[in-house]
Specification:
single chain; 45% helix
């Protein structure tokens, strides 16, 4: 089964390897949690066809979207 989203809670130095794994499994989105951002990882992920979200908490964004609708 291919994941839609890879939610990342890893240290910054592990982000390139996590991106490689996300690409290998065919994930559609790489989500870097609050405090995580890497422009090179974002460029590489987008070049591989992934949507990349950086420095955002998935739970906070989910709650925000629910309160808007």
């Amino acid at each position: 089964m291919v994941p839609d989203l890879v939610d990342v809670f890893r240290r910054h130095e592990h982000l390139p390897a996590v991106l490689d794994d996300a690409i290998k499994v065919g994930a559609k989105t790489l989500w870097l949690q609050s405090g995580l951002a890497d422009e090179q990882v974002a460029r590489d992920g987008e070049a591989a066809g992934l949507q990349v979200v950086m420095d955002r908490c998935l739970k906070v964004e989910h709650a925000r979207l629910l309160s808007v609708s």
